[in-house]
């Protein structure tokens, strides 16, 4: 089936802003050619990102985020809360449903990391584990004719900040919202100190497509109302915190 794909593309974002990158991801998803498979690679500065159906009060320390000026974002996909920084590589696989296979995506990442010397494994929650600890989680989004699979790979992230900001202030035992599943985490640099983001980016790119990667900038898509409107939505308090947020 995969041989029927006419084109594979790898695109790097030139932005490190979470709202811009979520909007770029949506822009690429909405403009996807049905005969195309795409790998979007992106990174963000300090950010906490919650899943679409989560309550930020029980997922992170909102007071600490506000005091320290760290943004909170809500993505379109489900799944749990994650910490982003420049040591955390974000990936998005997208294609028409005809070609979409989340297991193949994870196997591609697994083999790429194994080629870099990391004996990683995949569990039944679509997490990637290194020596029994989670280094990558995934979430998914579908439309009628296309799907995407995105996630993060902890490479050289600041794990102390991850643990600090993802420790919630409140407990709501009866909350109807989706809760994150707590897992012990690690990162690639804990096992190979000289690993860097570019090593992982290059291996993923080469594993996905031998063609040169492209880049995308915010300036290239600002004219598109689809991008602009989605960017506005991603930054709105109603979207992030819920209707009526002040």
TrEMBL record:
Species name: Gracilinema caldarium (strain ATCC 51460 / DSM 7334 / H1)
All copies of domain BPL/LPL catalytic, residue ranges: 33-216
UniProt xrefs under PROSITE patterns: BPL_LPL_CATALYTIC (PS51733)
Pathway listed: Protein modification; protein lipoylation via exogenous pathway; protein N(6)-(lipoyl)lysine from lipoate: step 2/2
UniProt KW keywords: Ligase
PANTHER family xref list: LIPOATE-PROTEIN LIGASE, LIPOYLTRANSFERASE 1, MITOCHONDRIAL
Gene3D superfamilies in UniProt: Bira Bifunctional Protein, Domain 2
Protein's UniProt name: Biotin/lipoate A/B protein ligase
Record lineage: Bacteria, Pseudomonadati, Spirochaetota, Spirochaetia, Spirochaetales
């Amino acid at each position: 089936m995969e041989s029927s794909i006419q084109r594979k593309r790898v695109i790097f974002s030139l932005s490190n802003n979470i709202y811009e990158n979520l909007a770029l991801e949506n822009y690429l998803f909405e403009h996807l050619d049905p005969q195309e498979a795409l790998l979007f690679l992106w990174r963000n500065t300090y950010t906490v990102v919650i899943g679409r159906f989560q309550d930020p009060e029980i997922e992170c320390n909102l007071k600490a985020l506000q005091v320290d000026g760290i943004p909170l974002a809500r993505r379109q996909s489900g799944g749990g809360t994650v910490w982003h920084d420049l040591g955390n590589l974000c990936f998005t696989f997208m294609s028409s449903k005809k070609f979409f296979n989340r297991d193949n995506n994870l196997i591609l990442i697994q083999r790429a990391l194994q080629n870099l010397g990391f004996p990683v494994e995949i569990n039944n929650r679509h997490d990637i584990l290194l020596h029994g600890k989670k280094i990558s989680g995934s979430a998914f989004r579908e439309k009628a004719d296309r799907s995407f699979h995105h996630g993060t790979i902890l490479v050289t992230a600041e794990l102390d900040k991850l643990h600090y900001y993802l420790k919630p202030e409140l407990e709501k035992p009866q909350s109807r919202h989706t809760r994150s599943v707590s897992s012990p985490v690690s990162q690639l640099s804990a096992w190979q100190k000289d690993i860097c983001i570019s090593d992982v980016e290059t291996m993923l790119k080469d594993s996905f497509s031998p063609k040169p990667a492209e880049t995308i900038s915010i300036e290239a898509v600002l004219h598109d109302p689809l991008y602009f409107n989605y960017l506005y939505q991603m930054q709105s308090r109603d979207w992030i915190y819920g209707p009526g947020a002040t």
